[in-house]
Amino acid sequence: MRINKISVINTVMFLLSPFLSLPFIIAGIRKKDKISELLLLLIFSLISFLYIPIISDDKVRYMERYQVYQTVKMEYFTNFIQHLRDTLRPDFIFEFLNYCFARFDIRIEWLFLLVTFLTLVQCYRLIEGACQTQKPTIRFLLLIVGVSFINIYSGVRFYLALSFFLSTAYFQLVNKNNLKALSFALLSIFTHYSMFPIIIILFLCKYLSKLNLKFVFCCSLLFILLPASLTYKYITSLNFLGLYENKINVYLQSNIWEPDSLNSTIAFYGGILWYYLAIIYILYTKKIKNIWLQLFIICAIFVNITYPVPIVFQRYSYVLKILFLIFLFQSKKTNKLIKYLFLLVCLCGLLIDINRMRYILLDSLFKIDILTLPTILITDISLYDIHE
Q1: What is the pLDDT of residues 23-49, one digit of tens each?
Q2: What is the distance of C-alpha 187 from the center of its chain?
Q3: Mean pLDDT throughout 173-187?
Q4: Which one of 8, 59, 291, 373 is at 20 to 30 Å from 263 when CA atoms are compared?
Q5: What are phi and psi of 31, to 5 degrees?
Q6: What DSSP assignment string belongs to 187-204?
Q7: Which residues sit opposite 387 in a β-bridge?
Q8: How confident is the model at residue 258 (pLDDT cuts 50, 70, 90)?
């Protein structure tokens, strides 16, 4: 078997110092080295290992429950199942992993690293499979601007569910393996219940695409003008959502339009500017025959309904962004200027995210401990380190 020198050198460099090996890894990716691609995904995952969340992040809730699982006597699996029943959790996969890591006394940072790596591998697999004609550097650029790393590092669970959805799309539309598509669909739903609607949309895409998509999409844009109170009244009238009424209340009461949250408003609009451009693109598109564009529009019709609730809309928009970028760079008919305009706008959104979280990133990453892999892996982050 032939040994790839680039793979060996980059692996050794990574084992010595992951972040200092970054220039060599990028050079390896440009030369189409697969090991270098995995190493770059690992570096992004190590940031999740080191990332110190703020008190409002979902990641903090997982750390709190991890401590509960360590201290409360739940040695038997049946006790944990009862805990899921008591807390009414149908999306149990991440919670189960958290429980297992706590019971086996494996630091939760390893769980964050594992989940982030799994998430990024699945996102990149879809981009690679759908955009085979693109160079590896372009595919990685699509990954970097397509996913919200800040939300991967701070939330973890939602993006894991999203990545399972993307794997479902990969096996449904690229690999044509229905059994694997169904398996990943179930994993997605059991990781985060909010993925259920777009999973259904994915499987019905073939039939829904026969509708007049542009007309239905234009109708769905009316929801952008609706107040949150009217949306709440409609949502709470749905009996099957009764279990999540408290969570819906929290989402609706989280108003980013308050005067003292200017940074959040800028981050929100900067993050979805690409979507307004996508709306214009769709309105000027005469024929909608590309399967990725059809899937994007059908998902967008549903996501537009959530627009009056910014937190929910923003989360679903992460799905839409990846789908739209895949459409642009998978289709040979799309104008290059349009492709790179969208890429530039998404890059601006990424820079806004980085600027908003700069102090947390500086505190998490800019320290002497990250220079070598061993010192990275012994870094311990506890609830006492959390940012207020």
Answers
A1: 999 999 999 899 999 999 999 999 999
A2: 15
A3: 91
A4: 59
A5: -95, 15
A6: HHHHH-GGGHHHHHHHHH
A7: 54
A8: very low
